[in-house]
Design a protein that fits this description.
It contains 3 helices and 5 strands, in the order βαααββββ. By secondary structure, it is of the alpha+beta class.
Length: 135
């Protein structure tokens, strides 16, 4: 883990099922996340992903990169262009700063409309135990 390290991009297909399941899992029953007709009545071309689903995907992106011992300490994101069904969000990240076993990662997620999410994630990655040691 070093400053300037780039995380490999992660492409996430934005499906109707992902949007609805994420809203249900986070107990966000706003109609714009599951009812296309009501979303259109409110000015959106279709349903769109909620911030809690985006937050979870950003966290997954960082922990997938740093491994199963990684611990998220802080996730600070801002939403931009909505994620609609049929699009693809591409997450990218760069390690901005490292302090011991903790790093700050700048993350961005884009789709065909522009930046869906931008922000930073602070993650701690405990040092690996020496091989052969018993826990």
């Amino acid at each position: 883990m070093r400053a300037g390290e780039e995380l490999p991009p992660l492409e996430i297909p934005v499906t109707r099922t992902l949007i609805v399941a994420g809203a249900l899992a986070s107990r966000d029953y706003q109609d714009v996340h599951h009812d296309p007709e009501l979303a259109r009545q409110k000015g959106s071309p279709d349903i769109f992903m909620n911030i809690l689903t985006t937050n979870g995907l950003v966290g997954r992106y960082v922990t997938d990169h740093f491994g199963p011992t990684a611990v998220l300490r802080r996730v600070a994101i801002r939403l931009g262009a909505p994620n609609h069904p049929g699009d693809t969000m591409v997450l990218t990240g760069t390690v901005e700063q490292v302090d011991g076993d903790t790093a700050t990662v700048r993350v961005a997620g884009s789709n065909t409309l522009g930046h869906h999410v931008t922000g930073t994630v602070t993650v701690t990655v405990p040092p690996a135990a020496p091989s052969g040691s018993a826990g």
